[in-house]
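#help-structures
NK: newbie question, is this the right format to request a structure? protein is FAR-17a/AIG1-like protein
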Amino acid sequence: MLASEVWPVRLLRLLFGGLAVLAVGAQFGREVVLPGFSPVNFFSYFTILSNSAAGLFLIGLALAPGRNRARLAEWLRGAMTVYLATTGIVYAVLLDTGELGLTLPWVNAVLHRVIPIVLFVDWLAVCPQCRVDYGKALAWIGVPMLYLVYSLTRGVVVDWYPYPFLQPVEVGGPAGVLLHILGIAVGIAAVSLLVAWAGNVRVRASQMRAAA
């Protein structure tokens, strides 16, 4: 069983965390020189926010692995796993049309595929130090829901939405937006319970080995 303190884990977390931050930075550099660029719009994409947070979090764990023993840090690690899974799944189900627009191909692959997989593998490979209560796991849904509220509210004010499924004209009106939000909420709740269950299974197995 891998531990946060061993150097291969720290090195991989540092490399992939740096890759996530580099990908976000490269995409920012590509767009910042374009006419009409809005940094607020750029950082209003859940993909950008989740990958930025996950990248910095992985770097933090790599540089200070002892923090991973804290209950809060483990809860946050589970949250990051859920948020990146959300990024990958929503992209695959609702957004992957083959048209990348301004997004660099390698950045698209890193942000929507590589980092989500890395976070999930990290959660499975590096055993959590403690169980996550399923009630607390469901609290992970709070951040994506707040993000959706922010996106819809700002969209009404500035007439700009980060994703097509949040635009009433693209999905058949407010009812279509609500249907997509409900579907996403159910999906995130299911992923949250799955991530918590997978972590708790690993914790239980570790405790049984220790007792034996």
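mod (FA): yep, format's fine, and the tokens are attached above. The chain has one domain: 7-211.
NK: thank you!
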